Amino acid sequence: MLNHLGKQIQKFQRFPFLYEGQFGLEKEAQRVTTAGELATTKHPASLGSSRSHPYLKTNFAETQTKVVTDRFSSIHKMYQQLQGLDAVLTQNLAPTERLWPLSMPPQLPADQTIKLTTVTAQKHAYRKQLIAKDGLKQQMISAIRLNFSLPTRLLLVLYEDHYQDKYDSYLEFHNAAYLKVAQNYQRYRYILTYLFGASPLAETNFYQSGQAKPAKLVRSLASSQKYGYANQTASQISFASLAQYVQGITTYVRQGKLANSREFSVPVQLQGRKLSKLTSEGVTYLELSNLELDPFTLDGISEVDLDFMQIFFIYMLILPSMPQQKLTSILQLAAEQHEQVALEDPTKASTLQAQLTEFIQEMQKFSVDFAAPHRLQIAVKRMAERVIDFKKTPAYLLSQQVSQQSLSQFAVKQANAAYTQQTQAVYQLRGYQDLSLSTQALLRAAFQAGLQVEVLDRQDNLVKLSYQEQTEIIKQGSLTSKDNQLGGELSANKTVLKKLLGAAGFAVPMSAEYRTQATALTDFPDYAKRGVVVKPRRGHSGAGVTVFKLPPKRAAYAVAVSTAFKFDRTIMVESFVAGSQYRFLVIGGKVKAVLEQIPANVVGDGRSTIQQLIEKKNLTRGEKQTKPMEKIPLDGATLANLTQQGLQLTTIPVRGNLVYLGDTANPVTGGDAVDMTTDVDVSYCHLAERVAAELKLTVAGVDLFIDNPYKAVTDEHPELGMVLSVTNQPSLIEHLFPYFGEAQPVAQQLLQFLFPKAFH
Amino acid sequence: MLNHLGKQIQKFQRFPFLYEGQFGLEKEAQRVTTAGELATTKHPASLGSSRSHPYLKTNFAETQTKVVTDRFSSIHKMYQQLQGLDAVLTQNLAPTERLWPLSMPPQLPADQTIKLTTVTAQKHAYRKQLIAKDGLKQQMISAIRLNFSLPTRLLLVLYEDHYQDKYDSYLEFHNAAYLKVAQNYQRYRYILTYLFGASPLAETNFYQSGQAKPAKLVRSLASSQKYGYANQTASQISFASLAQYVQGITTYVRQGKLANSREFSVPVQLQGRKLSKLTSEGVTYLELSNLELDPFTLDGISEVDLDFMQIFFIYMLILPSMPQQKLTSILQLAAEQHEQVALEDPTKASTLQAQLTEFIQEMQKFSVDFAAPHRLQIAVKRMAERVIDFKKTPAYLLSQQVSQQSLSQFAVKQANAAYTQQTQAVYQLRGYQDLSLSTQALLRAAFQAGLQVEVLDRQDNLVKLSYQEQTEIIKQGSLTSKDNQLGGELSANKTVLKKLLGAAGFAVPMSAEYRTQATALTDFPDYAKRGVVVKPRRGHSGAGVTVFKLPPKRAAYAVAVSTAFKFDRTIMVESFVAGSQYRFLVIGGKVKAVLEQIPANVVGDGRSTIQQLIEKKNLTRGEKQTKPMEKIPLDGATLANLTQQGLQLTTIPVRGNLVYLGDTANPVTGGDAVDMTTDVDVSYCHLAERVAAELKLTVAGVDLFIDNPYKAVTDEHPELGMVLSVTNQPSLIEHLFPYFGEAQPVAQQLLQFLFPKAFH
């Protein structure tokens, strides 16, 4: 009855709905040594319990890592999480370990030395059964499993538009649609095996003793019925109807031929909350297990492959149904075709080239006729190229890497390359680079700690973290619901902040406030005798701030005033306070990290010009907060600063000579952040904690001016620690990646504060 | 030694410091009936206990109200608070009562019928003593007392610049400066009496039986030694030195001639924390009691008079000191001059015209030479005009209002006029009109409740309220520290809000989100069949929102999309939901008020055009939230709306016919807010409370779409109450001044939530 479903979609112009849906992924990979041998160590302890971790688990063997994504409304979002999880997993490996990039396992030791994961007694019994039936080695193959749901909106409107009279209920229509996809998927899965097959051979010790092995390279050992992980019994289950499907599994489980209703390997499974309720509650997703690890990609699979899987999946819904009476024979033929493609020579064109070509051409037509999004059309094109030219298939490409009947050398090379790439630039988290660095750091720590992660809004850096029943939303890496909404308002208003802190007995720099340039200039005589700081009343990151360490000239003061007015209707003139600026990061009311913030500077090497020294220092720095440290700007302010010192960009400073290039001790203007957490006198930490408490903030960044960090601040001399400013959304990144000194694990500390139960 | 103080200031260019200082004010006024008789009622109960109220107290008699301001760093700020307090006091009077606008009391009943305020036993004894010595009637005169402090910065820098070697300590210099001001103030106080004297006569029953009374009108009965409230004993206290001053008072108190060291009436008093410590701790301010109530002003005194008092006060510091040996005789002469001016004929030029003229000319010169701020120079000029022309003095002006030996008729007229003015437009609070209306409403309620009020930042609407030890800061009238900082972030992000509320099981309108015009237009076919709302993702007050109640045409939809993109990088298209929009105001987790928000409309009267009806309705409305309701805009949107309905501005609607002029039910676009607090089914209140709780907000505005407010929302039909939006800073003003229906005391309710102890 669903043969004309495509026509209905065309008639009612439901194209956009076709490309919705829900997408999830599981991906296994073996942990190996840098020599490509199976690791003998335990799963990384830094990732906590692999059983309770929602994303980073182990399968079967202790060495078999498993990355499990959440379910997303787009492939792209799912892929982003996959990238982040892969990065975190790799970064938590022992430095001597790598992830094996192939689905087929590395050279295996004897069965008994393969360490299985610790599981419940029941699960243990099931495993023994699996090993007894299919052999342990098959279990060591690493699979990728996709969980795809049909777009609910699409099914609902189709039902309303056309199928209301043809089915007894929406549920029946819904289940029929899923069943159709599952049937067609099996019919055409040889297409996927041709496109994605990536296991031309097995390494030493894979085959059971006495087992015949293929004489030559093949396309997909992993998915072949004969050699792969496919379960013989499971492959006999009928897809003729949902009832028969359920019945089949139930029977085999009862007969002990299947261990349970979930864990068996077939290319496609109909999944719901519970097998016995599948008909009455409805199928919720299909589990597809056709893909193999692609060792040419960093994540074992490329986004374009996944895009293709999405459109292939929905294409199965649009294709005609198979006649019910011919179903068994067609699927039997399909299984044979699949085995034929799986075991054919990957260095030649496919034996089913004509069918492949026809299928992919039809699919291209579909992608255009049904207005598939650009990325899906591109994916079909890309796969069409693989059909046209077998040399573009992963199986062919891998066949070129075989050396001495083994892919080990190649696999180790890829594993090392991936490791290097994943452990570089760890201030970023792959898949989340568009978020602020502090948010990326928080997410990395959350993934590592096994918290559930949801990005609510990328633009706003709003993320939701959960652990068991507890949920916390965090903005910009450090803004949490633990703090009151006035803390930020008061921190942002510098005048009010000073008024309040001054009234509470804290030392704050003397300051005056102006609303017009005229009044600010009238008071100039008052400022002509001391160092002053001219700044907009509200402001971030030192924008519009001018520092006069020495008494300013009238003209320079006037420029500073007019600059500050560009940022706010009210400006402030403060006394310049000698000493250095320090950032105290308060988490849970306690100072967890301290940075000294040193204005932009270079140190002479005796032969480079100041410009060369700046350029060299800038090599590891970024702009607009894309790296933990900002580039020293080669702007007017820097030049003016040099001129004031009688220097030029072409000056060559004496070796070891420190040249300051800026006055504001702000990391955003190219300054250096130096960790002082264990060095600063503890009295300043207590001071910062009291300031945060005064604003009722448990998480805060408190900026103090300190003359001598080793000399305690006292009640008699509060001016030793002047409170400069406070923020309710402190950056985490500089503490994690200081220019000099020890990194502080502040992202993890923030999570510990938010989720004490997750860190027992 | 302080004779050349002015020269030091000129030499070091310390002019700006001269005009700093601290300023406070107390002002008494008698409560009378609309007939001008002393009230017999108690102090208004709505103002709480007059003893513990920080601002609105009573003096001596129960009828004698006393307004006490805080101490401020400028006259202007002090005057703003005075205006607010006067307004609140008047608004809390019984409708049949007024404030007597003169310092001299109204016609008095017999002594024994004057009700005294309830006070402690000790204070009661003192009062009896006062009455016995000076008579009760003198105590019924209403005074204005100014508390002025010299600018501390000025004294500190003067000491550092020049006086460090001339005094043993800063404190000695500081006290000497205050003493000099007090001495000179007494010397020249006849100037003030000329300028501000406003008591030409006394009403019936003022004089004690047998007491001689002036034969004709005078300038200042109130301040005359002979008839006024001056204390005979106190006037003999020596100002020769601070020690003698303290000694004098102490002796008189010991002898029982003065009841205590604080409460006695002399024109100027040196005040500190404690009389016995005055020398060792230093004088903190002078208390000046020269002014009289000015019945020609709304607040009993004008700001320009207070400005003059400020510059007069500082001028006393600059004038030469009196030679110590001639001090007594000079002050004796000054007292005589003062009495002469006080009792001279106000309808003629002063008998001391020559001195007055010389003094004011010198003062004008001072104001220019010492770079006084413009407002102070203006104040001196204004007073110079009074010197030149006695017809500009209050005493002369009052003499013209005397009728039948009484000012009663005039006083009642002025009292009524003031009452009318103070009780109009009560959505505003005088002195605070630049703040948001909700903040003004909150401050009015705070003043009434006897909370301590401090405005931290007018631009940001940040106010600090205190009661006993508790302090709360509030922004924009309703943003408090009770709520977490994420609530607002989540409320502001409509997409995330919907995601969260939807996930928590609340009914939210279906919506899609777009980042480009192209994608929004691609989905048009989907919106061509139903009503939709196109809006920017973030936004306030309906800006950029277009409502299509009926399915839009493509062109109109495109315009709406591009309009929304002007307000945000991301826009949303929502299903249009039928029903009305309601605002639920949650305070302390409970719904305290509900408004139905009706789109802009007019009701036909059968003869006016739509334009006339709009203009009529707009008469009581304002723009940019300066009034509780906004004008209906006569803009393109309104015209387009009429055109859609086949109407024009010139159309004359049938009598009683309701014509809608807008689609968005937002008070900001000219809609009507109708109170429904007691009408709406309570299930919606519970729904709104649950929504606020979901965001952990105790104070919130929750907007719901409700189809039928009398029909309960149920778990089975959550769509009966759709959650549209939430705000963490709800406006209070519409609930206090709805277009129709009962006003809800939400400002007071918010204060009750914040300060439960203040409302027991």
UniProtKB/TrEMBL annotation, chains A, B:
State whether keyword Lyase applies: no
Arranged from A to Z, the UniProt key words for this protein are: ATP-binding, Glutathione biosynthesis, Ligase, Multifunctional enzyme, Nucleotide-binding
Q: Which domain of life is it from?
A: Bacteria
Q: Name one GO cellular component term.
A: cytosol
* InterPro entries xref list: ATP-grasp (IPR011761), Gln_synth/guanido_kin_cat_dom (IPR014746), Glu_cys_ligase (IPR007370), Glut_cys_ligase (IPR006334), GshAB_ATP-grasp (IPR040657)
Record NCBIfam families? PRK02471.1
- Name assigned to this protein: glutamate--cysteine ligase
Q: What lineage does UniProt assign to this protein's organism?
A: Bacteria, Bacillati, Bacillota, Bacilli, Lactobacillales
